[in-house]
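Have a think about this chain, tokens included, and walk me through the fold.
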Amino acid sequence: MSNYELLKQVGKGGFSRVILARQRSSGRLCAMKVISIEELQAHGKFTQVALERRILKHLSHAFICPFIEGFRTQKFLHFVLEFCPAGELFFHLSKNKRFGEAEACEITAEIVLALEHLHSHDIIYRDLKPENVLVDFHGHVKLTDFGLCKQLRSKNDFSKSLCGSPEYVSPEMLITGKHSRMVDFYQLGALLYELLTGLPPLYSHDKTTMFKQIAIDEPAYPSYLSPSAKSLLRGLLQKKPEQRLGYAQGFSEVKYSAFFSRIDWQKLPLKERAGPLRPRLNGFYFDSEYVEELSAQQIEEMSLKWSVGPARQ
């Protein structure tokens, strides 16, 4: 902890908070995810967090948020990640209401490559949503928060649980709990649908109604969507996993759909030009509900509390 200057809280989750910090040795800004050990013990989440750390540490990709280091103190686990100054995709979507197809295409294409990289290591993500997609200084997206990932034993392996955000839960997970890598294809379709229309497919304020609709009903496709967008969405949002786009050939089926005809998949990871969401230099892209200025006294108290405990691991 002595190598970090704590600046302000910029996010908050169930067991964690995210603090903007400056690394003293390099001067770089970082996002420090601070996870309560007491909460992890109370809810039996240590295995899940251990997998998240392993994924962050060992997987490197242009569109996955880079891991800097991790360490443990007396009461907390700390994951230090690259700071993405343009905040969450959710913030930009809330501001814009919805995106045009050109922007949505570029955003989704970068997410496709991040998910494809995870699947190449037999890892399914299971929690794709605008809140888990960050935007860096150059406007490119970075997938983050791997707490619900699942390591599969093979390409055809499956898991059986209900997890993730209600708006993005897949029909098979909702009905039986049994799901495979195809859950990520459904969630990709749900994210693209929200980017293009402003709401997830089959959304309802009433959760019970929404679950029934996800299990039974077909989404409505607004008339302003292009034929290629509708075709891709229908393929990804199929109720049955074996009928879903990607089931036979994986992400290559998605990448070479007509909707992505403008994307050069070989050049995309090179980031030769700015991304679709490039922020303004003086802009602030974080939800004020979670932002908390840290006083000198709070920082001193945190530093004292966090500096006691096991050495860095």
Observations:
- Confidence is low (pLDDT under 50) at residues 303-313.
